[in-house]
Amino acid sequence: MEIEEAIKKAKKNDQKAFNFLLDTYWDYVYGFQLKRIENENDAEDITIQAFSKAFDKIDTFDENYTFKTWLITISKNIHIDLIRKEKNKLSQSLSNDDEDSFHQILDESPSAEDKLITEQNLAKLLRDIKKLKPHYQEVINLRYFQELSYKDISLELNEPISNVKVKLLRAKKLLAEIIKNKTS
C-alpha cells in the first residue's frame, strides 16, 4: 500500500490503512521524540498521543505536505503543551509554598465510606466497559485489570505492539464517550 493511498483510505476510516500508517511512521516519530526528550516512557506517551490526534484529525491533513512532517509537528505541539503544563504546575507549587508555614500530615487511609464509594464506582465502570466491543473490553482488561505491559498484551493477542497501543487508545476514548454521555 502506498502512503497516499493509505491516507485516502484512512480518511474513509479504513482500519488497515490506520495500521499501515502507524507501522510505517511509529519508529520515526518515537525516535524523534526520544532524541528530543531522552525518556523512553515520555517519548512513547507523546508518540501514542500524536498518532491518536493525527488519526482523529486525519480529515484535516493537507496532501500538499508530507504525512511524516505533519505527524512530527503534531508530536512537537503535544510535547510543548506538556512542558507548559509542567511549568504551570511548578510555578503554582512554588507560589503556594510559604517558608513560615508548616504542613500537617493527614491520615490518608480510606474510610469505610471511601471503600464503599470505590466499589460502587468500579461496578459502574465495569458496566460501562461491557458496552464496548469485545476486542476493546479485552485490551482494557489486560492493561488495567491484569496490569500487563504492552509487550505482554501484544504476545497475548498475537498483534504488534503498535496495534495494541492504538487499540487501547481507541478503547479509552470510546469508554470516555460512554461515561460522558451518561453524565450529560
From TrEMBL:
<feature type="domain" description="RNA polymerase sigma-70 region 2">
    <location>
        <begin position="24"/>
        <end position="87"/>
    </location>
</feature>
<keyword id="KW-0804">Transcription</keyword>
<keyword id="KW-0731">Sigma factor</keyword>
<dbReference type="InterPro" id="IPR013324">
    <property type="entry name" value="RNA_pol_sigma_r3/r4-like"/>
</dbReference>
<dbReference type="InterPro" id="IPR036388">
    <property type="entry name" value="WH-like_DNA-bd_sf"/>
</dbReference>
<keyword id="KW-0805">Transcription regulation</keyword>
<dbReference type="InterPro" id="IPR014284">
    <property type="entry name" value="RNA_pol_sigma-70_dom"/>
</dbReference>
<dbReference type="InterPro" id="IPR013325">
    <property type="entry name" value="RNA_pol_sigma_r2"/>
</dbReference>
<protein>
    <submittedName>
        <fullName>Sigma-70 family RNA polymerase sigma factor</fullName>
    </submittedName>
</protein>
<dbReference type="InterPro" id="IPR039425">
    <property type="entry name" value="RNA_pol_sigma-70-like"/>
</dbReference>
<dbReference type="GO" id="GO:0003677">
    <property type="term" value="F:DNA binding"/>
</dbReference>
<feature type="domain" description="RNA polymerase sigma factor 70 region 4 type 2">
    <location>
        <begin position="126"/>
        <end position="175"/>
    </location>
</feature>
<dbReference type="InterPro" id="IPR013249">
    <property type="entry name" value="RNA_pol_sigma70_r4_t2"/>
</dbReference>
<dbReference type="GO" id="GO:0016987">
    <property type="term" value="F:sigma factor activity"/>
</dbReference>
<dbReference type="InterPro" id="IPR007627">
    <property type="entry name" value="RNA_pol_sigma70_r2"/>
</dbReference>
<dbReference type="GO" id="GO:0006352">
    <property type="term" value="P:DNA-templated transcription initiation"/>
</dbReference>
<dbReference type="Pfam" id="PF04542">
    <property type="entry name" value="Sigma70_r2"/>
</dbReference>
<dbReference type="Pfam" id="PF08281">
    <property type="entry name" value="Sigma70_r4_2"/>
</dbReference>
<comment type="similarity">
    <text>Belongs to the sigma-70 factor family. ECF subfamily.</text>
</comment>
